[in-house]
Structures are given as C-alpha cells and as structure tokens.
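FAQ: What does a ligand-bound record look like?

Like this one, built around iron/sulfur cluster:
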Amino acid sequence: MAIERIQTTCVYCGVGCQMILKANDGKIVQTLPADGPGKGKLCIKGWSMHEWIQSPDRLTSPLIRNSRDEPFKEVSWDEAFDFIAERTKKIVDAYTGDAFGVLVSAKCTNEDNYVLQKLARAVLQTNNVDHCARLCHSSTVTGLAKAFGSGAMTNSIDDFDVADLFFITGSNPTEQHPLIGSRIVKAVARGKKVIVADPRDIDIAKLREVHPENVIYIRQKIGTDVALLNGLMNIIIQEGLHDEEFIKERTENFETLKEKVKEYTPSKTAEITGVAEEDLKKVAKLIGETDKVSFVFAMGITQHTTGVDNVLSVANLAMLTGNIGRPGTGVNPLRGQNNVQGACDMGGLVDVFPGYQKVADPSARAKFAEHWKVPSLSDKPGLTVVEITNNAGEQIKGMYIMGENPMITDPDINHLREAFGKLDLMIVQDIFMTETGELADVVLPSASFAERDGTFTNTERRVQRTRKVIDPPGEAKPDWWIVGEIAKRLGYDHLQYQSVDQIMDEIAELTPIYGGIVFDRLEEGTLQWPCPTKDHPGTPYLHKGQFSRGLGSFNPADYKPPYEKTDQKYPFVLNTGRVLHQYHSGTMTRRSPTLVEQGNEAFVELNPKDAEKLGVVDQEMVKVSSRRGEISLKARVSEIVDQGEIFIPFHYAEAAANALTIRALDPSSKIPEFKACACRIEKY
Ligand code: SF4
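The answer part, i.e. the structure of the complex:
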C-alpha cells in the first residue's frame, strides 16, 4: 500500500496546530508539522501524536454488564444498542424529562458535540447537557458575555506577533499552550515586554533572568486576583493613564468602576495580594503607557469561586486602557483542550442551543423544535457538570458521558465515585477504558480523531478540519454515528447522517455565527467565527468599532477570599494544574513512550522553607490530605511555589489531585474552585 500523508489538527491543546499524519500500510508511522496556528511547528506532544493511536489498549468492542459487580462482556453493536434503549426508555418513561445528565466533549469534533446535545434536548428532553468547559472556562464565557457580549477570545494568535506588551495572569503558556508560549518568548527576544502575575514562578516569568529589562514578575497570593486587578486600575486612574476617549465612546458604567477601585489603594492591595506597592506601581504604569497590550489568561483566573469576578476584572482593565478591538490587543483566554471552544459553540452548555442561542428565548426554541421535528423543547436551563453528579440517584437516574473522564478531571472524586454508584444507567463512550468507564454499565468504543472526519474550533475561534487517516480498530465507530444509532433505537429518526458534512450543513443552517462555514470552504482554508454567510471571510478579532453588546460594560467586583480557609490542621493552599508532557487525564499522553520518558510521575511542589519545617527533602514520598481525601506522591522542593502554597498536577490517577479538591462553585458560572483548597502535608 502507498504511503499516505494527510493533514489534520492536533487533538491536544487549544492552539490547534496543523500536522501531517503519515500512514504506511494502514498504520500511522510518523507525525510531521504543517502550516497553521503553530506556524509550521509542533510541540513535543504534537510530534509524538502517532505513538498512542494504535495502542493495543484501544477499545475495540462494545461492553455491557447487568450489574456493576460483574465483569464487562463484549457484545455486538445491536446488543449494546438494545441494552441502552431498554434502560433509557425505562428512565425517560418513569421520570418525565430531566432525569438524564449528558456530557459532551471538548476532545470530540463539532459534529459529535452537535449530535449529542441534539439527542439530549430533542430525545432525552433535557437541557442537562454540559462538559468540561464548565470546569475550565465557564467563567470566561459568563464574564466576557456580560462585559462585551461575546464569551470568546477577542483576538487571534497571529496578533501575539504585533502586541507591545503581554499581561499574562493565571496562564502558563510555555507548558499548556507551547506554540503560543514560544511566540511570546520570541516577542520578548525582539524587545517586546511581558508582565507575568502568577502565584507560581513559572518558566515564562524566568525570562526575566535573560531579559531583565523586558520582563516583570509579580507573585500574588492564590485567589487574590480581583484585588490585584482593582489595585492596578486604581493606580492607572490616579495617574491619569486610562483611555478617556475609549471609555467615553465605547463603554458604560465607568463611574461605578472608578468608585469601587478607589477602595483598592496600593497599600491595601499590597496587603491582600502580597505584591509590593512599588511593583504594583511599576506594572500599572507600564500597562497604562503601552499602546497595544494583550491580556492573556487561563485557568489560574477562571477556576475560582470568584472566577467570573476575576474575568470581569481583566475585562475592566482592558477597557480602562482601550485595549480592545485592535490588532495586538484584547482579552485572550487560552482554551485548554483542542475543541473546548467548539463544544461550547455547539450548545454543549446547559442554557444555550448551538451558537449561544438561549433556551429561554421562545423564538430560538421554536426554530430548533421545527428543524429537529419535535413538538417542543425545554426552556429550563439544565444542571451543570457538578450539579448533575450532586443530584445522582435523586433527580438524575442516567448519564451519558462521551469522551470525558471525570474520575480524574472533576473535583472531589471520592464523592463522584459514590454519585456514579447511585445511577440506574451509566453510558461511557471513549477510545480507551478510562477510570470513569470502569464504573459504567455500558462502554462504547469510539474512533479517534485520526479515524474519522470532522472539525475542531481552536482557542481563537478558528474552525479547522480533522481528517480520516486510517480505519478505526475493531468495532470502534465515530461518535456521531453511535449517537445517531442510539437515537434510532429510541424512536427518533432525525439524527442519522450519511457523513459529517451533512451535520455541518445543519449546524450552519441553525447557527448564525457558523452560517458560512461548510466543508467545501474548509477544504480551501480555515475560518474564524463569526462567519455568518458563505461569502464572509471570517473574523480575526472581535469588537472592532463596537462591542457585540453595543457598549462595553464595566462590572466592578470586590475581593473575596477562597471558599475554604486554611487552619492549623490544613495549613497549605493547594493549587492544581497541568504539566508540559501530559494532557488532561493522561489517557493518550500516558500511552506515548516519548512523553512517558519525559515525566510520568505525580509530584507536589513545596517551598524549601516549608520543606525544612516539615523535615521533608526533595524527592521524598509524602502524604497530602484535605477534608475530602488523601494521596501519596513525591515532594518536589522548589521556590516555584511560595511559602504556604503547594501545587499538584492533576493528570495522574494513582495520586489524583482531584481526590483533594473541593466542589465549591462560582455562583453564576458554576465553575469549581480547583485552584484553592486547604491541605496538609505529612512525612511518611
Ligand atoms: Fe498540539 Fe498544542 Fe502542542 Fe500545538 S501546541 S502541537 S496544538 S499540544
């Protein structure tokens, strides 16, 4: 068989680098970079993509069991569908509506996500449809929609090449978005400036050792972001460095903001955040005096009980200084997973249909009901990820989980295990058996991104093709096909498609921001939404001349400390996150020999002064516990973390950081506070 080289999109982070998968005799043998958002480069995760796709661990057959005490047995698709249909009908008939929770997936294609949310809404009669965006950027969507009228990254990755200054807070781009991180590193080498505000002294902050004149690092205490941002705005206004013309022409509610930030004097801000007054002044002056500032953030900002307030405060600072609606500026939340933007766009959220059309809007409901050929659709926003499992066994009797592994990625997994145990039916659909699949009644094998066609939408709203390179293993099938067959067994005939371009045509018809995005156009290039018509070129940056909501809205916020306080028993604040060589729950990266060799072991970062007090030395095993669980792992003694704070990456099932984290939620976005809970460390 001839060697084939097929271009597709990386399935890991939200940068959406393009890659060539090289196949020989039906096997993928190599990954090569292609031109795209990564500018013809890949990070180490991208380069080693081919290593896990043909793993012998791939699921190859549907699995069912009649009781959770029994082992799974391999069955045909027909048997699996009959099993699912019988049990699902029982639940739907017994508990009219809202008895199911459905998780779509930031790893699956737009088409997969569209069909699964359609199944939830049209067939299972519920808006209980959500996914891990709830756990990473729901506060971004809520906050930016309130401030600007659109919850997405405002500018493009290419804009990072023309920004004068980056204000990076709660984002570790060289590890989480390496091809964005490298652009920023190159910009600094060209003389551009960076301010890093982060509780951890991350690699990008260490650039100050090479370029001391271009890089400022400030270390705020975990969970004090609102105070920090208010304090900076206070100084900017006091110094007259705000953009009066922009504020007057393009925004509303400035006076309320001004009154609020007056309270955050440099001395009060320094006391709350731990950042010295002179550093606050230096940073504020630099932001206020620079023409094009790009505000970059990620989950260090969003994953708090004050996540929406944090995002609103970044938006306030950007508007205060006129840094919206121009190239090289903007509020740029970096999306974690390859298609978390697309899964949101496709209506994988509890209160919106595809394209953020609200379920509460009667005209939107009527439009979707007519196209989906159902008498009506629910106007009641559904339960979010954490609320679904909080209600397991009570309101929620069944769950359908596609491509997510909450037993590693969701907070307080000991509680989660109990919750899953209360379900009458748990369906998991994935490419590997996961920690979540092990608890299910049914596990369905799906095709990986390299074994089917589709689209992903990256962090900058760019819709890109993913293409079939090889056949899926065994009986594995594309997710959209599986969902369509389940719908058919449940008596619904409007979820069967011959190919993914038919699904994309339906998305375009019903979703104004995707109105001009069809497969033919994506063969010729990529498109950034909003792209309302077939002749629209797409939109590289948002809010030019006018915000999506008209005037930009200042929304002042007050500092509130993290939900769980430290005390004598639990004196450390735990921060969780990711590392360069692993991705999310590790199902793919932990099967890649190259990445495993680079680091495949859990660790807890601990400041040397704390280590000394505890008598702990570097690489020693320790026990870390919270009010919810305990794990054992190696101590990494390092000044990367401040005294009183610790950091654990969440990828590792054998020492799962989320056994410790808390289910406390931001009140409006319902994001859990992954970035702050109280812990204890003990020596063995
Ligand atoms: Fe893939 Fe992200 Fe690495 Fe690019 S930067 S190769 S998208 S993991």
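Follow-up question: can I read anything off the structure? Yes, for example: The domain at 138-334 is CATH 3.40.228.10 (Dimethylsulfoxide Reductase; domain 2).
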